[in-house]
Amino acid sequence: MTEPGGAQRPMDKVADIASDIGEYIRQQRSSAKISLRQLSKLAGVSNPYLSQIERGVRKPSAEILQQIAKGLRISAEALYVQAGILDLPTGGPVGDAIRADAELTERQKQVLLDVYESFRRENAAASTTAPKTTQETTEESA
Q: What are the residue ranges spanned by the domains of the chain?
């Protein structure tokens, strides 16, 4: 339902997020070829509750999302982004590769991402303050 002017009511937004995260979990479970019952055991969440999450009836807490992520063997951060708990991460393909590496701990991933982002910021700052090359100066005066 929408309010005058086409804006969504806050409760409708929560329902959309719950539906989106549930669909995302279902897709991840299907691609991992894990049954609902298997995931509920792996995540330590009851079968009916997990079913309600997947159908968008319930919006799970960050703690439950972390348990589900472990059961699916995916990054908890990916579920947090889908649930609207975290903003979409930046960094492009390098950041995505770091986040996807199953052999790194969450802490190791975060340290790598922090270092990578600091290098990107440093290079961006340097490129905006870099002096013009001889060719750039010659082209401007021509």
A: 1-88, 89-142
**DSSP state at residue 2:** B
Q: Which two tokens stand for residue 140?
A: 């401007």
Look at residues 62, 100, 98, 68 and name the one whose alpha carbon lies nearest to residue 81.
62
- Cβ-in-10-Å burial (0-12, 13-18, 19+) of 89 comes to middle
Spatial neighbors of 23 by CB under 8 A, at least 6 apart, are 54, 56
Q: Is the dihedral of CA 44, 65, 96, 120 positive or negative?
A: negative
State which fold the 1-88 domain adopts. Answer: 434 Repressor (Amino-terminal Domain) (1.10.260)
Dihedral sign computed on CA atoms, order 7, 12, 14, 19: negative
* First-residue to last-residue Cα distance in the chain: 61
* pTM of full prediction above 0.90: no
Ranges of H-type helices in the chain: 10-31, 36-43, 47-54, 62-72, 76-83, 92-100, 106-129, 134-141
pLDDT band at 96 (very low <50, low <70, confident <90, very high): confident
